[in-house]
Write a structure and sequence with these properties.
Layout (H helix, E strand, L loop, with lengths): L1 H18 L2 E6 L9 E6 L4 E5 L14 E6 L6 E6 L3 E6 L4 E5 L14 E6 L6 E6 L3 E6 L4 E5 L14 E8 L4 E6 L4 E5 L4 E4 L5
Antiparallel strand pairs: 1-2, 2-3, 3-4, 5-6, 6-7, 7-8, 9-10, 10-11, 11-12, 13-14, 14-15
Length: 205
């Protein structure tokens, strides 16, 4: 009986330790034949990725699929990661925003449609505070509260009120009291400081 108790304690302790290694996990939003990759941040600030990597969405510099978590680079200052269909976005402690993977709709916000196999900083500056990825678009917020969007806009996903794609982040509203952002396949929901819920899809705001 004592051996069973000790074995249970050992297994529980091991599982508890492993569970606490990760501070965040993000999985892909399935669409357009993608959405099969995951990213995670460990409690030491390192970034890890696994799953499908046909468009460099894992960020390890290759297009090789990974069956288990693989560390991305050696930086240990990652604080948040969000995953689109075949692209990935992450924030660092200094407020810089990074993106990689598929860029066919300009969703990496580098002014091109060229994909990237490893993390690349999105525009100069360290003023980003939140980011949420959809199918092939992304919505991000700056520290001043302003909201920005880029990428696919077939259903006005960027919040700009049109179906015109933008290849670099463009401000989409003058409202600045957003508390949370959650993008899905082709729409985004947001919560303001007064508790009201807002959204954009279809025809925009």
């Amino acid at each position: 009986m004592m051996k069973k108790i000790l074995l249970f304690i050992s297994i529980f302790s091991s599982l508890n330790f492993q569970a606490q290694c990760w501070i965040q996990i993000a999985s892909g939003s399935q669409g357009s034949g993608g959405g099969f990759h995951c990213l995670g941040i460990q409690n030491d600030g390192t970034l890890w990725a696994w799953g499908l990597n046909d468009q460099g969405q894992l960020g390890d510099g290759t297009t090789i699929n990974r069956n288990s978590p693989t560390q991305i680079g050696t930086d240990n200052d990652w604080i948040f990661v969000t995953v689109g269909t075949n692209s990935t976005y992450a924030l660092k402690q200094d407020g810089s925003l990074w993106a990689w993977g598929n860029n066919s709709k300009g969703q990496l916000s580098d002014g091109t449609t060229t994909g990237r196999l490893s993390p690349a900083q999105v525009l100069p500056g360290t003023t980003w505070s939140k980011v949420s990825a959809g199918d092939q678009f992304v919505i991000a917020q700056k520290t001043d509260g302003t909201l920005w969007g880029c990428g696919q806009a077939n259903n006005a996903e960027t919040g700009l009120g049109s179906a015109t794609e933008v290849f670099t982040f463009t401000q989409n509203t003058t409202i600045t009291d957003w508390e949370s952002i959650r993008s899905s396949f082709a729409h985004t929901l947001l919560r303001r400081s007064d508790g009201t819920i807002w959204g954009f899809w279809g025809g925009g705001w």
